[in-house]
Amino acid sequence: MTIVLILYKALIEFLKMLPILLIAIVFGRLAESYLPHKSVKKVFSNKHRGIFVASIAGMFKPGPLYVTLPLLNSLKKKGMTYGALASYLTSELVGGPLRFLIEVGYFGWFYSIVRFIITFFMAIGSGYLFLYLEFKGLLYKKLKNITLITQKTTKKFVKTAKNKTFSFKKNMMNKKD
Amino acid sequence: MKKFNKKNKCLILRIVRYLKKQDHKKKFKQAGIGILKDFRSVLPLFFLAVLIASFAEVNVPDYVILGILGNNIYLSIFIATVAGILLPFPKYASYPLAALLYAKGAFIGSIFAFIAGEVFIGNLFEDYLEVKYFGWRFFWFRLFASFVFVFLAALIVQVII
After folding, report:
1. Domain boundaries of chain B, sorted by first residue
2. Would A138 disulfide with which of A133, B24, B73, B158, CB 3.0-4.6 Å?
3. Helix/strand/coil (H, E, C) string of B97-114?
4. Do residues B84 and B116 make contact, with C-beta atoms less than 8 angstroms apart?
């Protein structure tokens, strides 16, 4: 009896949520296929505007994250800050349009809107935290080491070059004499 | 006001121009493949999650959930966040269980923490890509920052709602 009850309850719940889920998936995929990648690149390279726009974009960007991660990687290489990256990831993971629609179905409009607003502020907060960490150099110690090594090697190179020119000049003077 | 209207008009015109340029057949085909993929991956898992939630609804008594997630707000938010992280639920599958917990008397703040915690380590493939592209350091910092932010946000949600 309990198994039948469980199955019945599960089926009713599933059918209740199915239309919302279907609309969310269809809307998400359609919006994703029409996203202009070039203009996205332009916006994200700015520091403060980047964080702000990334927080909003993450909330509205539908579709799975693994599709956007390669794009984010290319944006990062082209100058996107870690702050914008963190705020985008936070807002997309915790927020997202599909989540909003499903939450409306489960917990109602009020909860969904409050969560939406709080997620936006959360994303901005994490963005500025990462901007600070980036500013302090805590996110790329390896790079710092590389710069130190290159500085040392250039110093050595300059020293040896100076010594060589000095010895060359000395040889020339000796030859003249 | 005039400037604002002009800007908006320009933006709308740009969007219209952009949409006119697109190859709609190709885009719809691309979207259709994605939709089918999503249906195949999400729907069975979602049904499974609903089934688990219904099973819990019938078998787990209210006082157990009230004792864990309905007594101390700070502790319940912490437990809910950790449970959300540890439970191997795929995307969107935690909602039925969260709704059940809420119906049985859990705090709304801990429900928020449970749903938000689910996204920390949800998909191993996505996490792998994130580590590969941005490094371990970024990944751990983001996890830690998200944990703190989710805790604070859950408290705010509890106060507001």
Report:
1. 49-160
2. A133
3. HHHHHHHCCCCHHHHHHH
4. yes
The tens digit of pLDDT for each residue in B3-62 reads: 666 666 677 787 788 878 777 888 888 888 888 887 787 778 778 877 877 777 777 776
CA B25 – CA A44 distance, rounded (Å): 29
* B153:A106 CB<8 A: no
Please list every residue in chain B whose beta carbon sits closer than 8 Å to the beta carbon of residue A28.
38
Tell me, what's the ipTM?
Answer: 0.71
d(CA B152, CA A75) in angstroms, rounded, equals 30
Q: Token pair 């209210």 is at which residue? A: B62
User: Which residues of chain A from 110 to 129 reach within 8 Å of chain B, CB to CB?
Assistant: 110-111, 114-115, 118-119, 121-122, 125-126, 129
What number of CA atoms fall less than 13 Å from residue A32's CA on the CB side? 26
Question: Measuring CA to CA, which residue among A135, A54, A138 is closest to residue A90?
Answer: A54
Residue linked to tokens 């990334």? A54
Residues from chain A contacting residue B128 (CB–CB below 8 Å): none
Please report the sign of the dihedral spanned by the C-alpha atoms of residue A45, residue A47, residue A52, residue A55: positive
